[in-house]
Amino acid sequence: MIALFAPDAAATDAIGAAIAAHLFPGDIVTLEGDLGAGKTALARAIIRARLGEPDLEVPSPTFAIVQPYSGIVHADLYRLADESEIDELGLIEDVGDIVLVEWPERALSLMRRPGLGVAIGMGEQGAGRVLSVTARGRELGGLADALAPWRAEETQ
Ligand SMILES: Nc1ncnc2c1ncn2[C@@H]1O[C@H](COP(=O)(O)OP(=O)(O)OP(=O)(O)O)[C@@H](O)[C@H]1O
Ligand SMILES: [Mg+2]
User: Which of 60, 63, 80, 122 to mutate to test the pocket of ligand 1 (most atoms within 8 A of CB)?
Assistant: First the structure.
């Protein structure tokens, strides 16, 4: 696990770009954190960097639930009533797609696929954000070095 501190939204964007450069096709990236933690902000940064389109509009998929892009899918399962709905949503239509999932607690089966787990929390006194990044079923690889500028502490 890598612990990071993002002092401002620009740092979140930069962390997203670093993560984007170290994702493999088929990776599932689970984004955990309370309302307003910054899950959509991080997903937006990952998608823009991955597609090389810094100004791409990336709406929160709160209502659409699933928002597909080229080779990457952004989902917000907050409104998902039952895990079985995932099949109908077409969340995993192409096993080569990268899938970014907000509120993954709604569909724990997603954790069986390889990828990254990112948990986002508020910094002390509400300033900035603390992030923890964990590799699941794959190595962190070069991502650990890429995230070094924001490293807060290390465990394990
Ligand atoms: N490192 C940071 N420091 C301070 N503010 C930040 C940081 N990163 C992102 N933010 C801000 O925090 C807010 C996060 O909102 P966002 O919609 O991404 O939250 P969310 O976790 O997706 O919420 P929801 O559960 O409603 O989907 C945005 O206003 C963003 O600019
Ligand atoms: Mg969101």
Answer: 60
Q: How far apart are CA 53 and CA 146, in angstroms?
A: 20
147 in a structural domain: no
CATH of the domain at 31: 3.40.50.300
Is residue 44 in some structural domain? yes
Which residue range forms the structural domain that includes residue 101? Answer: 2-138
- Does residue 150 lie in a domain region? no
6 lines ligand 1 (CB under 6 A): yes
- Is the pTM for the entire model greater than 0.70? yes
Q: What is the domain count for the chain?
A: 1
Strand order, beta sheet including 2-6: 66-69, 72-76, 98-102, 28-32, 115-122, 129-136, 2-6, 151-154
- Ligand at minimal distance from the CA of 105 is 1
Q: Using one digit for the tens of pLDDT, what is the confidence trace for 34-86?
A: 999 999 999 999 999 999 999 999 999 988 899 999 999 999 999 988 888 88
- 97-153 pLDDT, tens digit per residue, is 999 999 999 888 888 889 999 999 999 887 899 999 999 999 999 999 999 999 996
31 lies in a domain?
Answer: yes
Nearest ligand atom owner, CA of 38: 1
Closest of 121, 115, 90, 88 to residue 100, by C-alpha:
115
